[in-house]
Each structure stands twice: as structure tokens, then as C-alpha cells.
Amino acid sequence: MQQRQLGRTGPTVSALGLGCMGMSALYGPADRGESLATIHAAVDAGITLLDTGDFYGMGHNELLIAEALREVPREKVRISVKFGAQRGPDGAWLGYDARPAAVKTALAYTLQRLGTDHVDIYRPARLDPAVPIEETVGAIADLVTAGWVRHIGLSEVGAATIRRAAAVHPISDLQIEYSLISRGLEETILPVLRELGIGVTAYGVLSRGLISGHWSKEAPTAANDFRAHSPRFQGDNVDRNLALVAALRQVAQARGLTVAQAAIAWVAAQGTDIVPLVGARRRDRLAEALGSLDVALTGDDLAAIERAVPKGAAAGTRYSPEQMAVLDSER
């Protein structure tokens, strides 16, 4: 397995990470047995970075990971956890809480659910507008000193917030959506990350399946599936976006790749400081994603991919207007 270091101060991890959210929440029903088998297969293949959030299924995802890793030596994996999102019993999003006391309480529950004595990377899921980032990072820094957290990460924040956070404590990586059709970090955020020596863990590299080559608008979508409400999957937007996928398929097939492999390999080729996270819920999808690691895209390949899917060509925003409004990374 190829390795990449997350920033100057972060851990060395596999060049591909496994995002576990879909095994518990936001993409409709998941098969528990297949989810566990997929985590096992990922670890067996050399994937060392597992990403979760304490609000994925309200603790379900952490418990699932704990079960999957029961027989795996703790030092074999790096677990990244997001915290702070507040949700109601009906699943409604209620905002964010990143006060120092809330940070430490959230970690206490996470450690219990994961059955571990430390989290490798701990990060607020979003910026809490009511709490200065310095206070949130300072609270996590206390947890680092105590040994319960190894590294501090950020998620979906902009350049100014990144600078303020890094002034308090070294930051290992920023987790942010990055794909062929979500390239917002390139203008101002990525240059600051590279200036400060902070890595990127890129989620949504297949844009929630939209550019995976497997999704079609005829596929049934459960009411609790994020895609049932995502602008990119609605109305005329989805037709325009699937036309981009068709163009990408032609390029991928000419290179002997699947659409998903081309899309993942493109993200990985944007810098050795970037680690793509794939949200595979099944072993066959995981195997396909792992195949992207064998791909060395040439300059001509990258140019062909970008001609097929030009920057800014996606129709629709990556979240609803209400969610976009609370993203510090979009300001």
C-alpha cells in the first residue's frame, strides 16, 4: 500500500482512506454484514485511515467500526473522528456545538463507543459560529497533551479560519469535499494549506456516487438518502451532470479504467499531500477504488479528463442553500 503523510506534523497513512459514513447514515439502508466485511477487506488491503463522525447514525458508525476492529491491533489503523454536529431524534440538523466542554464530553463518548484509549485525528465537523476556533482547537490541544488525541484536524473551513487554528496548534489536515466537480478549495484554501504544511483528506471524490459511473436517475432513492434532496441530483441538473459522466466514461475506457477509478486517480494526482476518502459500503466497490492506486495518470490523461469535466461545469451546488450558508469554506 502506498503511503502519504498528512501535512508536516500529521500521521503517515495509506494513500486511500475509507469513509465509513454511508454504512450508518445519509445514503439509505446499508447491509451490516457487508459493511463489516468491507472494513475488514480495507484493513487487509493495507488501508490504515478510517474516517467517521460521532453523529453518523448517532454513534452507530463508531460502534460498527469498533466491532470491525475488535481483532485488529490498534496501531494498525488511524481513526479520524468529526464531532460537534447536533441532531434531533428525527435526524434533523440542529446546528453545531464546539465549546471546550462540549469538545471534551464528545470525545469521552467517542472513546467509549470505539473501545479505544485515543483518537488519531479529532476535528470539528464544521465551524461553530458562536465559538472562536482558537477555543475549540485549544480544547483539543488539551486532549492531545492528555494523550487522548494524537492530531488535530479541521473540516470545511476557509483560509482565514485555517490560519487562526494553526496559530494555536499544529493542524494535520483539512477534510473537505474535493472532486472533479467540486473544486472550490483550489483558489484560496489549498495555497494556504500548502504554505502552512497542512494536508488534505478529500471526501466526496465521487460526488456521492454521481460521478462513480454506477448511479442513474432511474435508481430508487430512499427518503433518508442525502441524494433525494441534493441539488446536483435534481431536475435538469442531474441530466447535465450525467452528461459529464458520459464524457468521463469515454476517457476512462480509453485508458482501461472505470469511471470511478479515473475520478479517484484524478484527485490523488493533484498532490501527494492529498488523501482521497472513498465511501465504499461494499467489497466490490472497495476493490474498484483500490484499483485506482495502480493508475499513474500522465499529463495527457489529466488534460483529457479535464476536457471531459471542465472546472465549474457541474450543475447545482454540492449542498442545499441552507447548508451552503453555514460552510465557512464557501465564504
UniProtKB/TrEMBL annotation:
Keyword Lipid biosynthesis assigned: no
Record flagged with keyword Oxidoreductase: yes
Species this chain originates from: Rhodoplanes azumiensis
Protein name according to UniProt: Aldo/keto reductase
SUPFAM superfamilies named in the record: NAD(P)-linked oxidoreductase (SSF51430)
Annotated InterPro entries: Aldo-Keto_reductase, NAD(P)_OxRdtase_dom_sf, NADP_OxRdtase_dom
Entry-linked Pfam families: Aldo_ket_red
Keywords attached to this entry: Oxidoreductase
NADP-dependent oxidoreductase domain ranges (all copies): 16-308
Matches recorded under Gene3D superfamilies: NADP-dependent oxidoreductase domain (3.20.20.100)
